[in-house]
Design brief:
By secondary structure, the protein is an all-alpha fold. The chain contains eight helices and no strands. The protein is globular.
């Protein structure tokens, strides 16, 4: 855990990328062709897919990388509303301090690494 709670440059990139995907999730999700009238695991787990290609330049572009970064998050974080999502991702990145995107992909973000989420209560 970091003492000063400051994000490294790769963490800032990951954070801004995740915020962009969360904010524009419908655009990313609509790019998928829905081939079934029934629920599949991909729709339940909110897994986005990047278009497949053999060109390295396209594989490493921001859109494909952002899908990979988003898919690496645990399901519990993906389902949060935008404000709580940004708060949780920010805290997670500040606590783990990655110095490369590869290090982020190699890490395992499991439930025990994530602090207990305190969702606001809805009063009717």
């Amino acid at each position: 855990m970091m003492k000063n709670k400051i994000m490294s440059l790769p963490c800032i990139y990951i954070f801004e990328t995740l915020k962009f995907v969360k904010k524009h999730y419908i655009e990313f999700y609509e790019q998928l062709e829905i081939k079934h009238s029934y629920n599949t695991r991909g729709t339940q787990n909110k897994i986005l897919t990047a278009p497949s290609t053999h060109l390295t330049q396209i594989q490493k572009n921001v859109q494909n990388q952002s899908v990979k970064i988003y898919n690496h998050l645990p399901y519990i974080i993906k389902q949060l509303p935008y404000i709580l999502f940004t708060r949780e991702v920010s805290e997670n990145l500040k606590n783990h301090c990655y110095y490369s995107i590869e290090e982020y992909f190699e890490s395992s973000l499991k439930k025990d690494n994530i602090k207990t989420l305190k969702l606001p209560e809805i009063v009717c």
